[in-house]
Amino acid sequence: MGKERENDRLKEKLASAASMPKDVVLGAAVVTIIGAGEVCIENYRGIIEYTDVLIRVQTKGYQIKLQGKHLQIEYYTNDEMKITGRIVSLEYCK
Questions:
Q1: HEC profile of 29-88
Q2: Do residues 54 and 91 make contact, with C-beta atoms less than 8 angstroms apart?
Q3: In this structure, what are the phi and psi dihedrals at residue 16, rounded to the nearest 5 degrees?
Q4: Residue 93 burial (CB < 10 Å; 0-12/13-18/19+)?
Q5: 70 phi and psi, to 5 degrees?
Q6: How far is CA 69 from CA 30, 38, 80, 83, 92, in A?
Q7: What pTM was estimated for this model as a whole?
Q8: Residues 6 or more apart whose Cβ sits within 8 Å of residue 88
Q9: Distance in angstroms (rounded) separating the CA atoms of residues 66 and 55
Q10: Which residue has the higher pLDDT, 1 or 73?
Q11: Which listed residue, of 24, 45, 49, 75, carries a Cα 20 to 30 Å from 83's Cα?
């Protein structure tokens, strides 16, 4: 696990030096929250759990847990998804 963390730090330094976005170099998730009713997640790896009150999404290194009411995935592609509904909380979990 230490070697992977060291590689990520090196990639982060290279991205910074080359003025490249971290999401491109590191594969980091990009989470965009629009009000309390919409979340877009880019660079995710998979959907772990999906109900109308809880959605868990796997990204590189952690999970994103959304809780709310009437949650639904409007669309998803291989690397992007849009979630709508009444979002009460968003949490990053290891």
A1: CEEEEECCCEEEEECEEEEEEECCCEEEEEECCCEEEEEEEEEEEEEECCCEEEEEEEEE
A2: no
A3: -65, -45
A4: exposed
A5: 55, 35
A6: 23, 12, 21, 11, 19
A7: 0.76
A8: 36, 67, 68, 69
A9: 5
A10: 73
A11: 24
Beta-carbon contacts of 75 under 8 Å, excluding residues fewer than 6 positions away, are 81, 82
Q: Please name the amino acid found at residue 51.
A: T
Which two tokens mark 78? 């291989």
First to last CA, the chain: 14
Q: How do residues 31-89 score in pLDDT, each as one tens digit?
A: 999 999 999 999 999 999 999 999 999 998 899 999 999 999 999 999 899 999 999 99
